[in-house]
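Bump. Still looking for DUF4349 domain-containing protein structure tokens.
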Amino acid sequence: MWACVTLSIKSENLMKTPARYFLSLFLLLAMMACSGQSKRYEAENADFPASSSRIVAESFMPQPAPEVAGQDGGGPATEQNLVQKISQQIIRDGQAVFETNDLKKTKTWIESLVQKHKAYLSLDEQSKGSDRIEQRMIVRIPADRFDAFVADLEKGVVKFDSKSITATDVTEEFIDVSQRLRLKKETEERYIALLEKAKSVQDVLETEKYIGQVRAEIESLEGRLKYLQNRIGLSTLNITFYQLKPEVQEFTSRIGLAFSEGWNNFLFFLLGVISLWPFLLAGVLLVGTVRFLWKLRK
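Sorry for the wait, here they are.
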């Protein structure tokens, strides 16, 4: 700085020389250079900046993930490229409803299927209605054994009232949540590094506030990712089976028996009518002849 002042003082005498214009320009550039060096020196030796918000905005912008970089030296990869790199993430659910003649026996049989396919029951409840006793079981089955479980269930059920299987592709959501979680964790690490450099209480409190916000977002993303992983790894099958109450079964049986007997009687009647066709034909001819003769007499 003193060198710059000295040059400024000497410039007053040099202004009288023929080359004053060139020297004046040279001195002006020299003073500007000194001023720039002084500012850089002050910036390098300054304490932690007073406004953490500005530093957060400028220094802690999330950086793109390495795997999102261009493929084979090309431009940035799209989300579709990432989807193609990972195997499909599928959530499979199903439901089945059927009637059984022995509720207890059917329940024991389904429990044996659960053990066979290394699944587990997340719900096992029984309810009674006016005409039936109903058992509901929700089975969580490893995804790679889901089809085999359903096949075994179909072999043991004579007729389903209803049965459906659904598959939902959540690959893109799985990738999106994973990427966002990784970026948030990187941002949290950078905030922690910034906190270690804080030199005032205000800066410490403000940085901790940002760390708390990022930590809340991380926990939310971790919860969503864990939920997706659980639904993908374990398929869900909702099984409902029921047994009609004895009195209902008896009444239903009687109705069926009465209908069956009535139909059989109707068939016997038709057979009887058909077997009497000669007599019916003779009667028709006799009546026709009598009416014809009666008309002739008139």
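DSSP finds ten helices and five strands in the chain.

Edit: fixed formatting.
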